[in-house]
Amino acid sequence: MLTRSINTLRLGLKNLYQLNHIKSFHNATVAHKAQVMNDESSYVVKTDRIYKPTYTIEFDRIGEVLLYSCDPHKHLTIFLKYPYILYETAIPLSVYLWFKNPLDIAWYWNNLFIYAPSFLWIPRMWYWRSLQYKIQRLSLLRGGKILKIETNTLANDKNTYWVETYQFHPLTADFTQFDDRDNADYLTEEGQLKYELACQLDHIQELGTTVQDEVIYFMKEGIVHHPELFEAATKGYVVDTSNFVINTAHNIRAFEGHHNQ
What we know:
The chain is of the alpha+beta class. The protein folds into two domains: 50-74 and 134-246; 84-128. The protein is 32% helix and 23% strand. It has helices at residues 2-20, 25-39, 72-75, 84-100, 107-110, 112-115, 117-120, 122-130, 227-234, and strands at 50-51, 57-59, 64-69, 137-141, 146-152, 158-164, 168-170, 197-206, 209-218, 223-224, 238-239, 244-246. The strands form four sheets. A five-stranded antiparallel beta sheet has the order 6-5-4-3-10, covered by helices on one side. A hairpin with a 4-residue loop joins strand 4 (137-141) and strand 5. It is flat and about 75 Å long. The N and C termini lie far apart (61 Å). The model has no long low-confidence stretch (mean pLDDT 83).
C-alpha cells in the first residue's frame, strides 16, 4: 500500500514537471517567431494585379471552372524516346563486353561494363518522372485567387495541387528565360496555345513537401476552355469572380464520386 502511494506521487510530480518544462528552447523560439510573424499585418500578401472578366463566369456544382484540359500521355513518346532508347541499346553490348572481354583488358577495368547497365536506365527514369509536370487539368476556384492543378503519372497516380495565381511566371517558347509577364503572347486568335507553355511556380507542395521554382507545362495539343481566364491566371492576376453563376445541372462532372452531392 505504501509503495503504491509513493509511485503514484512520483508519477504525479513527474507529469507536473513535464507540463511546466520546455524540452527544447530552439523549438519554442521558432514557434514564437512564427506566431509574431503571423500576427503582423504586413504578413498578408496584397496585390493590385486584379483582372475583371468581360463575361459572367459559370462555376460548376463544387465552385470550379475548367480552364485547360489535356491528355499528355496521348501526345508524348513514352518508350521509344530518343536519346534514352540509345542508352538502353548499349546494355546488351556492355554485358557482352564484360562476359567475353574481347578487348582483353584487366578484370578490374572490365568490370566497369557490368556496372554500366545499372546507370544507363537512369535518364529514362528522369524523363518519365518529368511527365508528371505536364498538366492534365487546370481549374479556377471561386474567389479567383486559387488554381487547382491536376496531373497524372505513368502509374495512373492522380496528383492534385492548389496554387495561388501570383506564383505563376510564364517562360518564353524556348523555356530559357522569363517572358514579359503582362505582354506575353502565347494564345492564338482562337484562344488556343501557340506553343507548349511553361510556367515557373514560386512554390508548389508535392507529396507533402514544398518545392521552389518548379516548372510546369501546358501542352500545345491541349484545349483552353476559357482563354480570357486562362491567360489572366497564368500571368499572375487575381480574377474578379464577383460576376458569376452556379451551374446545378446533373450532367456536370458526371461519373465522379461527388456527382450530384
